[in-house]
TrEMBL record:
Record's keyword terms, sorted: ATP-binding, Cytoplasm, DNA synthesis, Kinase, Metal-binding, Nucleotide-binding, Transferase, Zinc
Protein name: Thymidine kinase
Annotated ATP binding sites: A9, A10, M11, N12, A13, G14, K15, S16, D87, E88, A89, Q90
Active-site feature positions: E88
Organism of origin: Paradevosia shaoguanensis
Gene field: tdk
GO biological process, one term: DNA biosynthetic process
Keyword flag Translocase: no
Amino acid sequence: MAKLYFSYAAMNAGKSTILLQASYNYRERGMNTMLFTSALYAEDGVGLISSRLGVSAEAELYTEETDLFARICDQHAATPISCVFVDEAQFLTAPQVWQLARVADRLGIPVMSFGLRTDFQGKLFPGSSELLAIADVLREVRTICHCGAKATMVVRQDAEGHALTIGDQVSIEKTVYVSLCRRHWEEETGRWPLAGTTHDH
């Protein structure tokens, strides 16, 4: 039975590289895949999934209004699809996550989604929250903090390199994000040391 997969990580963990490699593996065997990415990352109206290793592939764009089930149904009717890949899955709406679940359940097409778990304030993105709730398979893609520990959090930095603690949840400029372990995230965002204390352990 086809499944809905969610691979999550902090920034710069190689999620897009894994997605592109998996899609390539399908296509190398003569199977068709369908790739989606958020319209927030459109380049001149074109969807592109890019890896830091320099590999990229064109992708369909989705907005909050896109009916993913209908789009995939239409494409599948024209050319059978063996697997659907969704990049930047944190930007999905809750209904869109259910649309992807129906692609697996009703159309029998596996769906592999990749995205961030939490934002720079340590809060779940809506799409990630719904995926964590209903995906069949959850996979953590690991990356490391500057200290060598596993990075699970993300900070957004201003032009001077200071961590921002307020602002919109979505900022598409990737260069302003840094992945950190929970301990250093608390220090960078000013949550530690606690007010009125001087200890650091």
